[in-house]
Amino acid sequence: MAQPWSSPARVAEPDEQISFEELALAARNHALPLEALRYDVTPIGLHYLLTHYDIPELDPAEFTVTIAGRVTRPVRLDLPALRARPRVTTRVTMECAGNGRALLNPRPVSQPWLTGAVGTAEWTGTPLAPVLREAGLADDAVEVVFAGADHGVERGVTQDYQRSLPVAEALRDEVLLAYEMNGVPLPPQHGAPLRLVVPGWYGMAHVKWLRQITVRDTPFDGYQNTSAYRLRQHPDEPGEPVTRMLPRALLQPPGYPDFMSRVRGLAAGPCRLTGRAWAGDAEVTGVEVSIDGGEHWTPAALEPSDAPAWVWRRWWYDWQATPGHYRLQARATDAAGRTQPVDQSWNRGGFTNNLVQRVEVMVTDATSPPAAAAAAPAPNPTG
Ligand SMILES: Nc1nc2c(c(=O)[nH]1)N[C@H]1C(S)=C(S)[C@@H](COP(=O)(O)O)O[C@H]1N2
Ligand SMILES: [Mo]
């Protein structure tokens, strides 16, 4: 073979387009269609999806998860035992740390997300903390490693997908061993029969197909913690770990799309712009909208909520649309004063890029046909 079968991390050349390999990843791992921002809870098939390797084949009847390592009483639990434990349902907005990657310049070569790597689900399961406490955490426990049943090779490193959390994070009340999503057993692609849910953290921490929990007295040095999911400017630096979601607002694109460009068509007149906003740590306190490409920002209305930062909230802004070409933008600010940047903050992995979303809209006079129809394009052969 001319190419090594598992290549090192790479940043695209300045004029390099999306590759066949990136297309292959994008076709497996899909985004939330932005019109699905209309749902408080994302229907399962519309929730974004990200799987590093293959979806593993697991028999729920045979399935067990083990809790071992630095504990006094190692435990093995099957699904009936998990279901017999206290049952909690919690709503969580989850976003991939790579969301926004393909908008970066230069582009880190990996799953080429635009802005839709997010979804909100209702996860049902049992809290992790009591399970860990019953197993008896050793005094010297520092991290807990969560291993999935999926296996692959990444940048030359053969592995099962594994991620660790510091003990204090693993013991948070909100962290769940989840066996249901939106009221039904987890579907295969979202981690059946069991996954971890770590509200507030980017997606990589929510380990799917969870089959082993190992308590450690030293920091975990696995690939997904020390090589991947680090904020680096240079390949050789250790980099800061990726943890919680930064604030982000998304706009549900108004009007109707052009098939290829996705530019929106909209008839002039009153238009309520609406979308969702969330964060991973301190709650969203405001959303601002710009209709003039970022010259002016106006506060949007934000739905009142007692929910934590990681449950997305609806926002809206009443726009009097007059004919013309617009670039709509929305940006969120959280209670810690963090606002989404209008310029990219770049890192080699393309992580945590919460650069503001931009939506192009052609507003046409309500009485004349839309510009696109007037141009009478050839029928689309692909349907
Ligand atoms: N076992 C396992 N867990 C995993 C992954 C994976 O590839 N294998 N991908 C992670 C990443 S990067 C993300 S963004 C989320 C995606 O969860 P979803 O596919 O249910 O939306 O799962 C995380 N958990
Ligand atoms: Mo991710």
UniProtKB/TrEMBL annotation:
The keyword Metal-binding applies. Keywords: Metal-binding, Molybdenum, Oxidoreductase. Residues 52-223 form the Oxidoreductase molybdopterin-binding domain. The keyword Metal-binding applies. InterPro entries: Ig_E-set (IPR014756), MoCF_OxRdtse_dimer (IPR005066), Mopterin_OxRdtase_euk (IPR008335), OxRdtase_Mopterin-bd_dom (IPR000572), OxRdtase_Mopterin-bd_sf (IPR036374). One of its GO terms (molecular function) is molybdopterin cofactor binding. Its cofactor is Mo-molybdopterin. One of its GO terms (biological process) is sulfur compound metabolic process. This is Sulfite oxidase. It comes from Natronosporangium hydrolyticum.
